[in-house]
From TrEMBL:
Pfam families: GSHPx. The keyword Oxidoreductase applies. Belongs to the glutathione peroxidase family. This is Glutathione peroxidase. PANTHER family: GLUTATHIONE PEROXIDASE. InterPro entries: Glutathione_peroxidase (IPR000889), GPX_AS (IPR029759), GPX_CS (IPR029760), Thioredoxin-like_sf (IPR036249), Thioredoxin_domain (IPR013766). It comes from Novosphingobium panipatense.
Amino acid sequence: MTKDPRNIADFTATLSNGEEQSLADRLGKVVLVVNTASKCGFTPQYEGLEALWRKYRDRGFEIIAFPCNQFGGQEPGNADEIASFCQVNFGLSFPLMGKVDVNGADAAPVFQWLKAEAPGVLGSKSIKWNFTKFLVDRQGRVVRRYAPTDKPAALEKDIAALLAAPSA
């Protein structure tokens, strides 16, 4: 990560298999970053996320899901258990990253940046719960933060608009 990150390309993430991956290859794509959990009341949103992924992936849309166990211990499993759960229950085919913290001193750097770029209600920097979503444009800039209660289908209009916008 650079000293003063400008966009999502300035970060790396760890895949669920432990492999480090640069997020620079996401430039030129519209990306939805989500902190997820398998035992949360919002877990059924995986279905809507998968539907968005399947509908728009061929147009340059990606979803990056980061499992997180910081909210009520709702993601207790290891990487294999999480991946299996998501595949069996939701047919998930978009990338699952390794489990991360999204708040506190050990928060993943990409989440520190996302929260600074798109604060929550009343300027809050912390993430309040699982399934907080951040929409990133083709230039790697954060466009909007969505609450856990915002269902994936409610984001479709914003995603489609970014996909239709000319690349700068």
